Amino acid sequence: MKYHINLDKGKIENSRLAILPGDPGRVPLIMELLDAPNKLASNREYVSGLGYSKGAPILVISTGIGGPSTSICVDELAQLGVDHFIRVGTTGAINKNVLAGDLIITTGSVRLDGASRDFAPIEYPAVADFFVTKALEKAALQLDVRHHIGITVSTDTFYQAQERHNGFSSFLLPKHHNSTERWRKLNALNYEMESSVLFTMCASFGLKAGCVSGVITERGNGENIDLPGLVSTQKMAAEVAVIAAKAIESNFEK
Ligand code: URA
What we know:
Layout lengths: L16 E5 L5 H5 L3 E9 L2 E8 L2 E6 L5 H13 L4 E10 L9 E9 L14 E2 L2 H13 L4 E8 L24 H7 L2 E5 L2 H11 L2 E11 L11 H21 L4
The site of uracil has 10 residues, from strand 5, strand 9 and strand 10.
């Protein structure tokens, strides 16, 4: 039994694929898209459930926000034999052509987080698995949803490292001044907070990971979250993640 996620191989029925939302509240919404969903465990930020695709188990488990909690979740799942991971989350657009409601499929992440440095030196690339990424793209095309594929900036802080001025303190360290514009010039698409550790871990462990995120704020237009669009954007990202998960699972040797 793994200490933090409160799961063992029996409970997860030897699933090889996990869908990873950050938010525990999104687990039931993703589970609804699978056959015969049932709740597994709930401990701290780690809420999990199991559903099926053509009789094969697919695990859904929340990671909590950010690198440290994500790293624990991914490590314990890997210890249980999970070797494919699809992160599904929300994100802030950096690129001005990316609009609220669009999806972003990340090919590689800028490692602004701290946790990924405990797995590999900073020169090591935080890259997604090619085949998981292709499956996510195929799912987005199938659903005919606006999507963008490219580089994500993955941070430890939501306010400071994403250059927000609406946190408790409007003071930002000099390194954060105009950082969004600098990332825009470097062709980054979006901000989020988990993909860099997920990709660094999986690439360096020889496991496979991808990431799809729904855009809930356009950082070229300020700091407001698109609250009216939140539910539908999350649902679309979840549908893409589940279609991709089912396609990947169907290719596992039986
Ligand atoms: N998640 C982030 O990390 N940033 C955003 O702007 C929205 C969601």
